[in-house]
Design a protein that fits this description.
The chain is mainly alpha-helical. It contains nine helices and no strands. α4 packs parallel to α8.
């Protein structure tokens, strides 16, 4: 990628997005690509989502109980804190940061390899809108699949906390169940869904941008993949602050 200042990068990013979000020339092929990307980015991320979520739910339950062991606190404190942490931050923000490393780096390296092997140039010569053909299905597919992954993460995280309460004497199952049901706010779930759709767009679009403009050799593809993960993670954290201010505060 050419050396540019941040303003130039932002401008080129938006120009690329203008090319991406155009009506596809061949809708049948486009939707076929979308279904393929849904399987590749969404279904293949289920296992890591389940593994990380169940352990994080268990760890959060133990840490919360150990750090709130005051007899003056109500019995539902541990379950309540664990539930709200999972709903508000872990299953949306932290999970997206993890998937930025998996999905984002994969997209950047895939498109970057196509760029340096001149496959994108061949598409352009044939009159194909390469940005729309390559990037739009990835963005749309991940934006659709991410709320499903978040739902699985929420459920699995709560199950992880339940498992800890069931197999250890840190707290009882009844105390945990009372906590996760106490003062439940359904809006928190929708808030997480909105965040994850925005974060999914950031991950896929930024990874595609760095891959699309990766010129040189294999080393440049690796650098583009690294930049995609790092910069998308920074933007995700920035947007997390903005969305929290707009939707919760």
């Amino acid at each position: 990628m050419k050396k540019m200042n941040i303003i130039a990068h932002i401008g080129e990013y938006f120009l690329l997005m203008q090319k991406v979000f155009r009506w596809p020339d061949r809708q049948r092929m486009f939707w076929r690509q979308v279904s393929h990307e849904m399987e590749k980015q969404g279904l293949e991320s289920i296992l890591i989502t389940l593994i990380v979520s169940v352990f994080m739910g268990a760890i959060m339950t133990m840490q919360t109980k150990l750090n709130t062991s005051n007899p003056l606190l109500p019995v539902y404190t541990t379950g309540l804190v664990t539930r709200d942490c999972i709903l508000l931050e872990f299953s949306s923000t932290i999970l997206c940061l993890l998937l930025a490393g998996k999905v984002g780096s994969n997209i950047a390296s895939e498109i970057g390899t196509m760029r340096i092997t001149e496959q994108i140039d061949a598409l352009e010569i044939m009159g194909v809108n390469s940005a729309n053909y390559l990037i739009c299905p990835k963005v749309l597919a991940f934006m659709v699949m991410m709320p499903l992954l978040v739902t699985l993460s929420m459920a699995t995280g709560l199950i992880g906390g339940y498992a800890i309460s069931a197999v250890t004497d840190i707290l009882t199952v009844d105390e945990y169940l009372i906590g996760i049901q106490y003062a439940f706010v359904p809006y928190y779930v929708w808030y997480s869904f909105v965040k994850t759709v925005v974060f999914a767009f950031i991950i896929t679009s930024m990874a595609s941008y760095y891959g699309y403009y990766a010129y040189g050799g294999a080393l440049e593809v690796g650098k583009a993949s690294t930049k995609a993960v790092v910069n998308s993670s920074i933007v995700i954290l920035l947007m997390d602050v903005v969305l929290t201010k707009l939707m919760l505060v």
